[in-house]
Amino acid sequence: MSIKLGDTAPNFQADSSVGTIDFYNYLGNSWGILFSHPADYTPVCTTELGMTAKLQSEFDRRNTKVIALSVDRVEDHQNWIKDINETQMTCVHFPIIADDDLAISKLYDFIHPNASATSTVRSLLILDPNKIIRLMITYPASTGRNFDEILRVLDSLQLVDTYTIATPVNWKAGDDVIIPPAISTEDARQLYPKGVREIKSYLRYTPHPVD
Protein backbone atom coordinates (compact mmCIF):
# COMPACT_ATOMS: atom_id res chain seq x y z
CA MET A 1 0.00 0.00 0.00
CA SER A 2 1.33 3.43 -0.92
CA ILE A 3 0.40 6.30 1.40
CA LYS A 4 0.22 9.77 -0.13
CA LEU A 5 -0.55 13.31 0.97
CA GLY A 6 -4.29 13.84 1.17
CA ASP A 7 -5.03 10.17 1.88
CA THR A 8 -7.01 9.10 4.92
CA ALA A 9 -4.59 7.44 7.31
CA PRO A 10 -5.58 3.80 7.82
CA ASN A 11 -6.68 2.78 11.28
CA PHE A 12 -5.03 -0.05 13.21
CA GLN A 13 -4.98 -1.76 16.58
CA ALA A 14 -1.65 -2.59 18.15
CA ASP A 15 0.23 -3.32 21.34
CA SER A 16 2.29 -0.42 22.60
CA SER A 17 4.39 0.70 25.52
CA VAL A 18 1.21 1.93 27.25
CA GLY A 19 -1.02 -1.05 26.36
CA THR A 20 -3.23 -1.99 23.44
CA ILE A 21 -4.43 1.01 21.45
CA ASP A 22 -6.79 1.77 18.60
CA PHE A 23 -5.10 4.48 16.53
CA TYR A 24 -8.26 6.45 15.73
CA ASN A 25 -9.50 6.26 19.32
CA TYR A 26 -6.11 7.41 20.57
CA LEU A 27 -6.17 10.47 18.32
CA GLY A 28 -9.81 11.34 18.96
CA ASN A 29 -10.48 14.82 17.56
CA SER A 30 -6.85 15.92 17.89
CA TRP A 31 -4.18 16.47 15.30
CA GLY A 32 -1.69 13.62 15.27
CA ILE A 33 1.97 12.91 14.59
CA LEU A 34 3.02 9.34 13.76
CA PHE A 35 6.74 8.79 13.43
CA SER A 36 8.66 5.58 12.76
CA HIS A 37 12.04 4.39 14.00
CA PRO A 38 14.19 1.58 12.57
CA ALA A 39 14.76 -0.15 15.90
CA ASP A 40 15.02 0.35 19.64
CA TYR A 41 18.31 1.36 21.28
CA THR A 42 19.44 3.40 18.28
CA PRO A 43 21.28 6.61 19.20
CA VAL A 44 19.64 9.12 16.84
CA CYS A 45 16.15 7.88 17.70
CA THR A 46 16.95 8.01 21.41
CA THR A 47 17.61 11.75 21.12
CA GLU A 48 14.45 12.25 19.03
CA LEU A 49 12.12 10.48 21.42
CA GLY A 50 13.67 12.45 24.26
CA MET A 51 13.05 15.73 22.45
CA THR A 52 9.47 14.69 21.68
CA ALA A 53 8.89 14.10 25.38
CA LYS A 54 10.41 17.49 26.27
CA LEU A 55 8.08 19.19 23.79
CA GLN A 56 4.94 17.55 25.20
CA SER A 57 3.51 20.88 26.39
CA GLU A 58 4.04 22.39 22.91
CA PHE A 59 2.14 19.54 21.30
CA ASP A 60 -0.60 19.82 23.92
CA ARG A 61 -0.94 23.53 23.19
CA ARG A 62 -1.48 22.66 19.52
CA ASN A 63 -4.06 19.95 20.32
CA THR A 64 -1.71 17.33 18.88
CA LYS A 65 -1.07 13.77 20.04
CA VAL A 66 2.20 12.04 19.20
CA ILE A 67 2.81 8.33 18.77
CA ALA A 68 5.98 6.51 17.74
CA LEU A 69 6.52 3.14 16.04
CA SER A 70 9.43 0.71 16.14
CA VAL A 71 9.79 -2.85 14.93
CA ASP A 72 10.70 -4.24 18.35
CA ARG A 73 8.55 -5.71 21.12
CA VAL A 74 6.73 -3.96 23.96
CA GLU A 75 9.27 -5.22 26.51
CA ASP A 76 12.09 -3.72 24.45
CA HIS A 77 10.21 -0.42 24.19
CA GLN A 78 9.67 -0.22 27.92
CA ASN A 79 13.34 -0.87 28.66
CA TRP A 80 14.40 1.60 25.96
CA ILE A 81 12.16 4.26 27.50
CA LYS A 82 14.14 3.91 30.73
CA ASP A 83 17.31 4.68 28.78
CA ILE A 84 15.65 7.62 27.02
CA ASN A 85 14.45 9.09 30.29
CA GLU A 86 17.89 8.68 31.84
CA THR A 87 20.06 9.95 29.01
CA GLN A 88 17.77 12.72 27.75
CA MET A 89 16.66 13.84 31.22
CA THR A 90 12.95 13.67 30.45
CA CYS A 91 9.94 11.37 30.87
CA VAL A 92 8.32 9.64 27.90
CA HIS A 93 4.54 9.34 28.29
CA PHE A 94 3.41 8.94 24.68
CA PRO A 95 3.01 5.42 23.23
CA ILE A 96 5.59 3.55 21.19
CA ILE A 97 3.90 0.98 18.97
CA ALA A 98 5.29 -2.56 18.94
CA ASP A 99 5.42 -3.61 15.28
CA ASP A 100 7.60 -6.70 15.45
CA ASP A 101 5.55 -8.39 12.68
CA LEU A 102 5.95 -5.28 10.44
CA ALA A 103 2.18 -5.20 9.79
CA ILE A 104 1.76 -1.47 10.48
CA SER A 105 5.05 -0.58 8.83
CA LYS A 106 3.85 -2.27 5.63
CA LEU A 107 0.38 -0.71 5.97
CA TYR A 108 1.99 2.75 6.08
CA ASP A 109 4.71 2.00 3.52
CA PHE A 110 7.48 2.47 6.09
CA ILE A 111 9.52 -0.45 4.70
CA HIS A 112 11.75 0.57 1.80
CA PRO A 113 13.62 -2.53 0.58
CA ASN A 114 16.49 -0.54 -0.94
CA ALA A 115 17.16 0.91 2.51
CA SER A 116 16.34 -2.18 4.59
CA ALA A 117 14.05 -5.17 4.15
CA THR A 118 13.48 -5.52 7.91
CA SER A 119 13.59 -2.01 9.40
CA THR A 120 11.37 1.01 8.92
CA VAL A 121 12.54 4.18 7.29
CA ARG A 122 12.48 7.22 9.55
CA SER A 123 9.22 8.77 8.36
CA LEU A 124 7.02 11.32 10.08
CA LEU A 125 3.37 12.01 9.25
CA ILE A 126 1.12 14.84 10.44
CA LEU A 127 -2.60 14.03 10.44
CA ASP A 128 -5.42 16.53 10.86
CA PRO A 129 -8.48 15.82 13.06
CA ASN A 130 -10.20 14.15 10.07
CA LYS A 131 -7.31 11.66 9.88
CA ILE A 132 -6.12 13.15 6.58
CA ILE A 133 -2.35 13.00 6.01
CA ARG A 134 -1.15 16.59 5.68
CA LEU A 135 2.64 16.18 5.85
CA MET A 136 5.12 13.41 5.08
CA ILE A 137 8.85 13.67 5.78
CA THR A 138 11.35 10.81 5.43
CA TYR A 139 14.84 11.12 6.89
CA PRO A 140 17.97 8.99 6.47
CA ALA A 141 18.94 6.95 9.50
CA SER A 142 21.96 9.17 10.15
CA THR A 143 20.13 12.51 10.41
CA GLY A 144 17.97 13.52 13.35
CA ARG A 145 14.67 15.26 12.79
CA ASN A 146 14.36 19.02 13.27
CA PHE A 147 11.52 19.51 15.73
CA ASP A 148 11.52 23.28 15.26
CA GLU A 149 10.51 22.57 11.66
CA ILE A 150 7.85 20.06 12.71
CA LEU A 151 6.26 22.59 15.06
CA ARG A 152 6.57 25.30 12.39
CA VAL A 153 4.72 23.19 9.80
CA LEU A 154 2.09 22.22 12.36
CA ASP A 155 1.50 25.91 13.12
CA SER A 156 1.22 26.64 9.40
CA LEU A 157 -1.24 23.82 8.73
CA GLN A 158 -3.46 24.82 11.62
CA LEU A 159 -3.40 28.48 10.58
CA VAL A 160 -4.18 27.66 6.94
CA ASP A 161 -7.16 25.58 8.07
CA THR A 162 -8.55 28.52 10.05
CA TYR A 163 -7.82 31.40 7.67
CA THR A 164 -7.69 31.69 3.87
CA ILE A 165 -3.95 32.22 3.66
CA ALA A 166 -0.66 30.51 2.80
CA THR A 167 2.70 30.82 4.56
CA PRO A 168 5.90 31.91 2.77
CA VAL A 169 9.44 30.61 2.93
CA ASN A 170 10.93 30.43 6.43
CA TRP A 171 7.63 31.59 7.91
CA LYS A 172 7.24 31.37 11.67
CA ALA A 173 4.21 32.06 13.86
CA GLY A 174 3.64 35.81 13.98
CA ASP A 175 5.18 36.57 10.57
CA ASP A 176 3.26 38.02 7.63
CA VAL A 177 1.31 35.52 5.54
CA ILE A 178 0.48 35.23 1.84
CA ILE A 179 -2.88 35.96 0.21
CA PRO A 180 -3.88 33.18 -2.22
CA PRO A 181 -3.76 34.17 -5.94
CA ALA A 182 -7.41 33.20 -6.45
CA ILE A 183 -8.49 36.19 -4.34
CA SER A 184 -8.43 39.50 -6.18
CA THR A 185 -6.63 42.44 -4.61
CA GLU A 186 -9.92 44.31 -4.40
CA ASP A 187 -11.55 41.46 -2.50
CA ALA A 188 -8.41 41.01 -0.41
CA ARG A 189 -8.68 44.55 0.94
CA GLN A 190 -12.11 43.61 2.28
CA LEU A 191 -11.14 40.17 3.55
CA TYR A 192 -7.90 41.12 5.29
CA PRO A 193 -8.58 44.12 7.54
CA LYS A 194 -4.96 44.34 8.70
CA GLY A 195 -3.96 45.46 5.21
CA VAL A 196 -2.58 44.17 1.93
CA ARG A 197 1.01 44.60 0.76
CA GLU A 198 1.27 43.92 -2.97
CA ILE A 199 4.64 42.97 -4.46
CA LYS A 200 3.21 41.52 -7.66
CA SER A 201 -0.38 40.83 -8.64
CA TYR A 202 0.15 37.20 -7.58
CA LEU A 203 2.40 37.93 -4.57
CA ARG A 204 0.65 39.78 -1.76
CA TYR A 205 1.17 39.76 1.97
CA THR A 206 -1.02 40.52 4.94
CA PRO A 207 -0.06 40.60 8.65
CA HIS A 208 -0.47 37.46 10.72
CA PRO A 209 -4.24 37.11 11.24
CA VAL A 210 -4.05 36.23 14.94
CA ASP A 211 -3.40 39.04 17.44
Describe how the helices and strands are arranged.
Blueprint: E1 13-14, E2 21-22, H1 23-27, E3 31-37, H2 43-54, H3 56-61, E4 64-70, H4 74-88, E5 96-98, H5 103-107, E6 122-127, E7 133-139, H6 147-162, E8 177-178, H7 185-191, E9 197-200, E10 203-206
Helix pairs in contact: 2-4
How would you characterize this protein structure?
This protein has 211 residues and is an alpha+beta fold. It folds into two domains: 133 residues, Glutaredoxin, CATH 3.40.30; 44 residues, Antioxidant, Horf6, Chain A, domain 2 (2-Layer Sandwich). It has seven helices and ten strands. The strands form three sheets. The chain has a five-stranded mixed beta sheet with strand order 5-4-3-6-7. A three-stranded antiparallel beta sheet has the order 8-10-9, with no helix packed on it. Strand 1 and strand 2 form a beta hairpin. Helix 2 packs across helix 4. The longest helix has 16 residues. It is elongated. The termini are far apart. The mean pLDDT is 93.
Topology as a string of helices (H) and strands (E): EEHEHHEHEHEEHEHEE
**How many helix segments?**
7
User: Roughly how much helix do the residues carry, as a percent range?
Assistant: 25-40%
Cα-to-Cα separation, first versus last residue: 43 Å
Report the sheet-strand fraction. 15-25%
CATH superfamily of the largest domain: Glutaredoxin
Unreliable spans: none
Computed CA radius of gyration, to the nearest angstrom: 19 Å
Structural class: alpha+beta
Number of strands: 10
CATH class of the largest domain: Alpha Beta
Report the average pLDDT across residues: 93
How many distinct domains?
A: 2
**CATH topology (level 3) name of the largest domain:** Glutaredoxin
CATH architecture of the largest domain: 3-Layer(aba) Sandwich
Order of neighbouring strands in the sheet with most strands: 5-4-3-6-7
Main beta sheet: 5 strands, mixed
How would you describe the shape? elongated
